[in-house]
Amino acid sequence: MGHRILMLGAGYAGLTAARRLGTLLRGTDAEIVLVNDRTDFVERLRLHQVAAGQDLPRYELAELLRGTGVRRHCARVESVDVDRRTVTADGEPLAYDTLVYGLGSSGAPMPDAEHVWSAASPVSAMRLRGRLTRAAAGERVLVVGGGLTGLEVAAEIAEARPELSVALATSGGLGDRLVPGARAHLRKGFARLGIEVFEGVRVERFTEAGAILADGSVVAADIAIGATGFAPNPIAAASGLEVDGRGQVVVDAAMRSVSHPEVFAIGDAALAPGPGDRPLRMSCSSGMPTGWLAAGHLAAAIAGRRPPTLRVRYFHQTISLGRRDAVVQFVTADDRPRRAYLTGPVAVRYKEALCRVAVWSFAHDLPAGRRGTAAAQRVPGV
């Protein structure tokens, strides 16, 4: 019986790892099984478009992985037992010799969640889409969170539904991680879209009337949307793997669990070392290179191949301001803003190209190059 590799999750990191493993282990007796609860790939980068009412292309995993030898198993993962080396999915135990854990993350929990909508998953984005479809002219939409996701959700809804009143609340400043020119363009874009901005405020809780701030004041909202970050899937923390306080699996430079070497963790599921001795931030773009790294090191261990000599670095952050405007902020290897940036139609084309190349690469096993805000770069030794 060959070496059995069980892969969990078919997001950006999981698909990158699956495609790469299929290439590197072709001709060996290794068995690669990809477990995912959907038969299609979700473009998480575009869920704000889904929420705003846009229909996106459907990419079937069968087509993306055609010819790789990777076997797909459609089921929802319920638990992982690292001592017995089994995964339970839809009640069925699945054994493994090596596990590649890439279940990723979901929207960070919000207080009074029954009053808060989200666009962090396909299901929640479709629910929000339904609510927005029913919204009457003049209803007030409040997006809470000034990160990339919050900015894109607010802008997309404001452009698609100009008859609604859209606002954004952030604990920092609007676009405060951008250089002055890029930040000024972001502010002009929000003003053009009619988005009201509340800066330096902290939301304590939600009610049917809207958001209650730390000072007790109320920001009225008919539809409150949480976009305050992401939280890792809790399955890893319950598995026995060593995790950090957030529940991310602690890994080494090869994406291998420091407590269970037969487990690799990738993408948002992993607490991975990044440039400047800082952990990689949760993002699909940094997730793709971690999938590439894990696949390369795993194939080296199984088939005696040379391990990859790669490191992960950042190149840019991209922000859509609807379908006709965007900001691209170029950054240093350790994710600090550089002076260079793009705005307007050229930034729209730039961001759109990144999204399309990411999906295209799943069917072509491209190296982990400049696909997103992070990429793998060849260096001497790991």
TrEMBL record:
GO terms for molecular function: oxidoreductase activity. The keyword Oxidoreductase applies. Residues 4-272 form the FAD/NAD(P)-binding domain. The keyword Lyase does not apply. Its cofactor is FAD. Keywords: FAD, Flavoprotein, Oxidoreductase. Its EC number is 1.6.5.-. SUPFAM superfamilies: FAD/NAD(P)-binding domain (SSF51905). Belongs to the NADH dehydrogenase family. This is NAD(P)/FAD-dependent oxidoreductase. It comes from Glycomyces rhizosphaerae. The lineage of its organism: Bacteria, Bacillati, Actinomycetota, Actinomycetes, Glycomycetales.
